[in-house]
Amino acid sequence: MNLPLPVTLLILAATLALATWGIGDLVAGWGQRRRLVARSALGSDARMNSLLGRLDTVLRRTALGKALARRLAASGVRMRVSTLVVLMAAGAGAAIFLIGKWIAPLFGIVAAAGVVTLFLTFLRRREERRRDDFIAQLPELARVLSNATSAGLAMRTAIEIAADELADPAGEELKRTADALRLGQPLDDALRDLSERLPSRELGVLVSTLVVSARAGGSLVTALRTIAATLEERKEIRREVKTIMGESVVTNYGVIVLSLAGVALVNVIQPGALRTMSERLPGQIVLGVALTLFVGSMLIVRRITKIDV
Predict the structure, then answer these.
(1) Is residue 112 part of a domain?
(2) What distance in Å separates the CA atoms of residue 9 and residue 16, rounded to the nearest whole number?
(3) Tens digit of pLDDT for each residue in 4-15?
(4) Range of the structural domain that residue 230 is part of
(5) For the segment 19-50, what is each residue's pLDDT rounded down to a tens digit?
(6) Which of 34, 64, 163, 299 could lock onto 174 through a cystine, CB 3.0 to 4.6 A?
(7) Is the Cα torsion angle 304, 234, 73, 192 positive or negative in sign?
(8) Quick one: which of 261, 256, 254 has its CA closest to 294?
(9) CATH number of the domain to which 158 belongs
């Protein structure tokens, strides 16, 4: 069948245009695939093939590694578990060598335990500070969710708006929740994951309200506004309690500094005295009692200054 020349040219042009579009789309897909592989698989393989990467993989399979990973995520410290473990091991080894050589091997072991405790205390303080910052943002978060839901938006959209409007740490945590919802995770599970990352009584109340309202319905706007006002009052009370207990917290740190300075001063005044004490049974008993009293005083002061509001 012979087609007219204009029709043949039109079909040929359409075929060429379709082929060009298909080739361009195929090339774009290849480029996107290469970028994704470079950012994910290849990059991950390069990181995993390193010594710290392999160590991180092994540690994350253990209970200790999982606990450290959760603490690092809750504290907001962008560090791998293997890096943290290597730093703690290096610090403990340096403490054993330096303090053990300067004073006595027994004090080196105690100093190594102190270094590990110092790292864990740093993580705990970062967790508490990040959780307190998040709790301080909860009234604003409740107001943003209330305004969004009163405008007729779905809870998923309201969470995305709150993630864009609020600063960190609330913005970062809500972005994780919004990403989980985009990937198909149910709202209940995503909110529970949020409360597990930053455990607090205030966030638990807010999450429970959102979950119950999503399941059974009800006046979510009124509930969120009431929660916002209540959280604002609790924030003021927490600030007042923190100010009142500030002196006791400083006292706790003062006990630590003075105790360590006293031990160092004894060794400076009488060089070798602590080494001699650590090598004999009576001296070991005296040092053990002193260490027990030291740790007990810190725990007592910490327990006194810890007030749940």
Answers:
(1) no
(2) 10
(3) 544 454 555 555
(4) 136-244
(5) 555 555 555 555 555 555 444 444 444 455 57
(6) 163
(7) positive
(8) 256
(9) 1.20.81.30
